[in-house]
Design a protein that fits this description.
With about 130 residues, the chain is α+β, with helices and mostly antiparallel strands. The chain contains three helices and four strands, in the order ββαααββ. The chain has a two-stranded antiparallel sheet with strand order 1-2. It has a two-stranded antiparallel ribbon with strand order 3-4. Strand 3 and strand 4 form a beta hairpin.
Length: about 130
């Protein structure tokens, strides 16, 4: 009886990329696929990361969210995602009964706050109580 020995499989091509943005480092290691297609997808992903940083970074003075917080922009002048995030934050405030809020003392803060954050408890000044439900 003859034995068949398989040839070792060739390792798929690896496309690696490291990108610094948002105050951190993103590392991509993609195996398989057509390298040109993978590189194009990586370029798109990296552009998306930089766009999110340009819009939402609370550490960049020139980001839309920082400018909005300072009153230099109106929501209508920001990327559509900003209005969506603000709507989601308002909904989170409603369902958490104030345990999460995008405001502190009536002023909008880009990071929001939670019951475990420095502005714990309802925003109306009432005493802190246990979690809802």
């Amino acid at each position: 009886m003859a034995e068949t020995v398989a040839e070792p499989a060739e390792a798929p091509a690896a496309v690696r990329h490291v990108e610094e943005t948002m105050g951190t480092v993103f590392s991509f290691d993609v195996r398989g696929g057509e390298p040109a297609v993978v590189r194009a997808a990586l370029e798109e992903a990296v552009a998306g990361l930089h766009r999110v940083d340009e819009v939402f970074s609370t550490y960049r003075d020139d980001s839309q969210i920082s400018r909005l917080a300072r009153g230099e922009l109106d929501v209508g002048e920001c990327a559509a995602e900003v209005a969506e995030v603000l709507e989601l934050a308002a909904e989170a405030e409603r369902v958490s009964e104030g345990w999460f809020s995008p405001r502190y003392r009536g002023r909008w803060i880009p990071r929001g706050s939670s019951r475990d954050g420095p502005w714990s408890g309802p925003r109306d000044g009432s005493p802190r109580r246990g979690p809802p439900g």
